[in-house]
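Justification of resources, computational component.

The compute hours requested in this renewal are based largely on the per-chain cost of generating structure records like the one below. Each record pairs the submitted sequence with a full structure-token output. That output is archived, and it is also reused by downstream analysis tasks.
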Amino acid sequence: MTGLPPADAIGHVPRAVPASAVGWSELLLFLGLLVLVLTPVARVAATVGLFAQRRDGLYVAITLFVLLLLGATVAVGVLS
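The structure output for this chain reads:
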């Protein structure tokens, strides 16, 4: 005994999972990916605020450029 289900049982797994659970799993997967993508964006945006508070124009400009690149990357990913 290997602990694995028999090969013919694998095809029956989707029938055992209710359709509502499939929708929830897709939603949770989407939300998880959204959090993973938006975490760096939020971090860079917060850094812009901190540098602006310190009135450090050079680092505000650099961080805004990085934020622009992150936003463009997210936009391209969403539109494609």
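The mean pLDDT is 81. DSSP finds three helices and no strands in the chain.
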